[in-house]
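Table S7 (text form). Paired inputs.
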Amino acid sequence: MTNATEPTISFLGCGSMNEAILGGLLAGGISPAQVTATVRSAERAAELRRVHGITVLATAEDADANRIAAAGADVVIMGVKPVGTIALAREIASVLRPTTTVISVAAAISLAMLEAALPEGQPVIRSMPNTPSRLGRGVLSISAGTHADASLMAQARDILGSAGTVVDIPEKQVDALSAVSGSGPAYVFYLAEAMAAAGVELGLDPGLAKILATETVAGAGYMLAERDADPTALRRAVTSPNGTTEQAIATFDRLDLPVIIAAGALAASNRAQAITEELDS
């Protein structure tokens, strides 16, 4: 039996990002009885039912799966790839209740594009999450569409808050946010790879180097997650004058590592904007 005080939520598409949000929501106390998901294959549907205990519909078994899930939802979270998001919005448009909030987590799909594909007046919110959401440690932005009022934004904040830290931003900043937090986990993983490779170059066993790099990055992340943690202060605390760490940081500065990171983030932001233009053409 569903809880009337909780919204019914449908995840249309349950790839890595939507499942990350789903996992965070369930871990945060959302009842599985309130949740429906749709996927393509029957095998994937069976897996999600087994892992999460939710209702899952497969489009391979029922071509109307997305429409069925959307028709019964207070909140629809669209998590298909950007190239398929507008087609999905058009597919479900006729079955949505006027009060149903549509949340899109697709990169590069603007609010204007979504609103044009949905019924006039449909509340739409754009969110940009990242993969740590599945551990409840994600960052999830929300940007309000034309008809998403303060109460609907608060509802979205409550729903997504179980998956991590929710930040309100104007849509014009979404590409910049994506370049920092959306792509950011990959930067951190890349750093761990590079640290492990450096250990091997210094003569460490590859397996040991991987453990050292992985656990160091993970442990540093825990320290950053502490209340009022400041990355600059934490770095300085480890960097003793004339010590080994100071020499490493000085080398990074000489090689312009901050400039390299900024250039990468700019490239990510520019690519997001270009994809939006491609999909809207």
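Next pair, protein 2 of 2.
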Amino acid sequence: MSRASFPKQLWPLVGERTMLQETALRAAGPEFAPPIVVCNAEHRFLIAEQLREIGIENARIVLEPVGRNSAPAITTAAMIVAEDTPDAILWMMAADAAITRPEALQSALVKAVSAAGQGNVVTFGMQPTRPETGYGYIELGDAMTGLDGVYRVAAFREKPDLEQARQLVASTRYFWNSGMFVFSARTLLDEMRAHAPDVVAACTEAVAHRVRDLVFERLDPAAFAKAPNISIDYAVAERTAHAAVIPADLGWSDVGSWDALWDISPKDQDGNVALGDVFLEDARDCYVRSEGMVAAVTGLSDAVVVVTEDAVLVTHRDRAQDVKRVVERLTAAGRHEARAHNRCYRPWGFYESLISGDRFQVKRIVVEPGQKLSLQKHYHRAEHWVVVEGVATVVRDHETIMLRENESVYLPQGCTHRMENPGRIPLTLIEVQSGAYLGEDDIVRFEDTYNRS
């Protein structure tokens, strides 16, 4: 389900809201400033829309031209905040973790803010519940004077093997590394200058030359690309003399595997998690999820079954981490499924392929009210649009055509065209493509509302 074009942060994996929405709502309220979201430029419209759905319309969305791990992303956010309030306290959260005890989080956050105000880089140590080999660990040091429940970090430990994990969990001084941090903008930038000056140099230039793009802020591509690919843990947390940790039991999970998701999800009397159109018979301790067609599981225990429109995963829960190997093989084979879903989201709505064959393809296209596609043409294909719901305004060369339900228009190969939804309900149409080449890169854009090239 988590693919490059639509990663797990944008899915409602735990509850009704997406993981991005759940993360943003943890910092909602009058005591918090509007959030800064640093993200891949490809996901900008999806993220803006998901934030709008939960009432957050004043977020600052900063676009990375290329992924460079967490340290450059966090550094740019701190620099942007420091332009106005250098001593502001920042709470850094990855948008792909689940927390089932939010009340405990708020209590820990109060302690973290106090410690960060004294110049510390504060993280949260999660109470381990099992020997976990997929997480890093934090060793507790001495208690910090005058800060209740806050400790020095004695050491960070890399992801251990199973025997080492058992030893760490048996000790009372080791906690899972949550990857959440609290620090002042000034402290973070001072520590970055001391321990990762090459990151600071690249980010300083990228922030100074950022440009406004609609509601987004685009970092300078050439400057940001110079930043090393390094995490905040390696850049600062493991090097600073001011690392502090707050042990907490937050019901935290980074949802790094289907087994981890089974662990934190509500279960039936047989220990099963069933989501979507699912039927279970004599199944126990299984995670079964369907995003479409009916999925039936019989006579299995400890299984993971996930069904999407274009892929099915079946694995033992103990082997859930092995899905990474499958993705590597799909990527090496050049499979489209390794990167994108059948449904592809765009700033105007989405499209999905229904059927394809030799020299033809049929798609469903949904355009949100008030939105429109770019003015474009195709060199290698013709298209036929049939409206099945809503109203469309179509430009075809020098014509403007109004289409209603059950009406259609033919767009010859090479004609200039665009479509707009002038109505108040989503516009749904069926597109039939025909031609020698039907790839998405056969688009020449002349004008685009969303500033896409």
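The longest strand covers residues 174-184.
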